[in-house]
Amino acid sequence: MLLLYNFILYNFLIMSKLNNILILHCWPEESLLRFAYLANTGNAYTNYMNIGTENLNRNKLLEIMIKHNLIKLGIFMDINCNQSDYILEVANSEQLYGPRLHWLIYDNGFSFQRMIKLFSQAQLYLNTDLTYVLRNPMNNHFILYDLYNKGKHIGGQLNITIDREIACTEIQCNLHRYLSSLYDRDRLQHRRFLTNLTLRMTAVVNTKPLNTSIEELLEFLESQNQINIDTYARFSFQSRKILMDILGCNFTYIFRDRWTSDDLSGGLIGDLWDSKADIAAAPFIYSPSRARYFQALTQFCSFRAVCMFRNPQSATAGFKFSEFLDPFCWSVWLVFVGVLLLAGILLWLTFRLEQREWKPSLLTSCLLSLGAACIQGAWLTPNSTGGRMAFYALMLTSFLMYNYYTSVVVSTLLGQPAKSNIKSLQQLADSNLDVGLEPAPYIKIYLETSDQPAVHSLYLNKIKNSKKSHDRIWLTAEEGVKLVRKNPGYVFIAEAALSYEFIRKYYLPHEICELNEILLREETVTHTLVLKSSQYAELIKLSELRMLETGIHFKIERYWVRTTLHCYQNNLTVVVGLANAGPLFIMLFCSYVVCFCILCMEIIWHRRQRLRQGNR
Ligand SMILES: *[C@@H]1O[C@H](CO)[C@@H](O)[C@H](O)[C@H]1NC(C)=O
Ligand SMILES: *[C@@H]1O[C@H](CO)[C@@H](O)[C@H](O)[C@H]1NC(C)=O
Ligand SMILES: *[C@@H]1O[C@H](CO)[C@@H](O)[C@H](O)[C@H]1NC(C)=O
After folding, report:
1. Which residue puts its alpha carbon closest to atom 14 of ligand 1?
2. pLDDT tens for residues 38-72?
3. Distance from the CA of 119 to the center of ligand 3, in angstroms?
4. Which residues fall within 8 angstroms of residue 291, CB to CB, at 6 or more apart?
5. d(CA 312, CA 300)
6. Which atom in ligand 2 lies closest to the alpha carbon of residue 211?
7. Nearest bound ligand to CA 216?
8. Ligand 2 contact, 215 CB (< 6 A)
9. Looking at the 3D structure of the chain, how many domains does it have?
10. Which of 22, 195, 206, 288 lies 20 to 30 Å from 62, alpha-carbon distance?
């Protein structure tokens, strides 16, 4: 017995580095004490259960095995006890050969056949950690076997691999020799090829009816043209093809027309949830309700649904005439005019006091001060010191005003294009703007089922109670993006990755800068998700990480998904064209007309004066 005890502790403490051990035994009391003493000196925490007796407490057993908080619990079982077969049955039905338990099963009888008989139909997994030990009666050496099954549910076979031979004395155990290359790598690395297995995959197709033949659907998913239709489905399908090559397996397919009907059940996610599929072709979002059942393996790609529109007011895009008056408010303009008039009057007084030969009129001196304000200089300046001082002050004031004014105008011209004041989804829902949507299931179902008030009122106001016909609300991304460009104020809701492609294609640089964006849902990323209990989780995760590290994934992602729009500020040319300066010319024209009238009146008045003098 002592040899066996030493071996058990050697296997758990040294080979597997586990301190928590459950011993399922049918040993006599005094030898149990002996083992407990040995385990204590080796710092092992042990729990014992006698499986030689008839009345075995199944619930207590399950509680110990399942409800522990350890990363891994070691279990030793002597296969020669009365209830051993029953325990194996329980392990099968309760799926206890998972990665959280390390099984060490010991057979005294050295019967290879028995091991095969016991486990050929057992519910073993790819990530099972089960060591079967036979004791060679010739030299008392222990021979270890590693057992697993790459997928019993899809026709996988039991794999028994011999590992090593261990020689034990009454004091300690030592490795005698390796019997295979199993020791040189991690357990999972030995099992990483799923050759000859066919995993079940569930995929989403929206643009083709589901009764299309499988060949046609597969051909469509593998095609690379027209990246705007079924982008995510095809992008992720092609990424999974590479995963298939890495794993060396084959897939059978289930096709669905949606991700899910209500966050968990139905569609692609429902298939995973019901264990109808091992892996999903398309990634999805890791939400709180899904977190109970799924685990996220790797990040797949970003996911943003946006409402985009151009500024409603900017129908006459470019620069508005009123912006020439914007730099100062009305009071400033009034005071400035007042100052100029006052300066004009003061100048007039100065010229009068200077007793010149030719005295400019009041109007002329006002014209002089206006010329100073427009940085035109003056052709007539006062001679007296006081007058010149006043003139300096006037020039200086207008110099400052003028520079300030031009800087403000220039900075408005070069600055950001004004964005709309509709900044939130609720404002959008309450506005009178026209809305169109991309008919993708993730947008449709999100709008219909979301419990966020803003999204719900958007759905009610713009879709459910809209008077527009169905096909004028649901537009393809290409049509929608074009409409947004054509009609400022038209709102289109779509997934960013697809619409950006068309925006790049059709928009002028300054139109890209003008685009307003409101997020329909929080910006997030999608993940590759599998069920928490999936035996392939670790393997898929490692393979996907490899794809991320080698850049294969990004190569495909860059082909399918656009994440940024470039708004080149330098390209932003503000057109101050004749169209916008029109009022100026009209004003000029009007003033010419007025001048002409005044001229005519002056001529008539002059004639009458002459006539009157002639009559005298
Ligand atoms: C069994 O697994 C080992 C590695 O664990 C592998 O080398 C061997 O090829 C497998 N045998 C079969 C029949 O799959
Ligand atoms: C698929 O179903 C639609 C009706 O749901 C039918 O009109 C169409 O002919 C079917 N296509 C094939 C290939 O069976
Ligand atoms: C994968 O399965 C399909 C159909 O089930 C078969 O046509 C194909 O040849 C298989 N591929 C490989 C590599 O085994």
Report:
1. 159
2. 999 989 999 999 888 878 888 888 998 888 899 99
3. 29
4. none
5. 36
6. 1
7. 2
8. no
9. 5
10. 288
Q: How many whole angstroms from 165 Cα to the centroid of ligand 3?
A: 40
DSSP one-letter code for 420:
P
288 CB near ligand 2 (under 6 Å): no
Place of tokens 């993730």: 442
The mean pLDDT of the chain is: 87
- Ligand 2 neighbour 213 (Cβ under 6 A): no
* 347: confidence class by pLDDT, cuts 50, 70, 90: confident
513: CB partners within 8 A, 6+ apart: 416, 417, 567, 568, 569, 572
Ligand 2 atom nearest to 210, measured from its CA: 1
Q: Say yes or no: CB of residue 187 within 6 Å of ligand 1.
A: no
Point out the ligand 1 atom lying closest to the alpha carbon of residue 191.
Answer: 5
Protein residue with least CA distance to atom 9, ligand 2: 211
Q: Which residues pair with 147 in a beta bridge?
A: 130, 160
Q: Is 190 in the pocket of ligand 1 (CB under 6 A)?
A: yes
Q: Which domain holds residue 116?
A: 2-190
Residues 404, 457, single domain; the answer is no
Find the CATH number of the domain harbouring 446.
3.40.190.10
Ligand 1 contact via 162 beta carbon (within 6 Å)? no
Q: Is the CB of 160 under 6 A from ligand 1?
A: no
CB 159 near ligand 1, within 6 Å:
yes
Indicate whether 63 and 178 sit together in one domain: yes
Residue 586 pLDDT > 90, yes or no?
no
Query: Is 100 within 8 Å of 47 (Cβ atoms)?
Result: no
Q: CA 424, CA 610: separation in Å to the nearest integer? A: 75
pLDDT tens-digit map of 104-163: 999 988 888 999 999 998 999 999 999 999 998 888 899 999 999 998 999 889 999 999
315: pLDDT strictly greater than 60: no
Let me know whether 121 and 25 are in one domain: yes
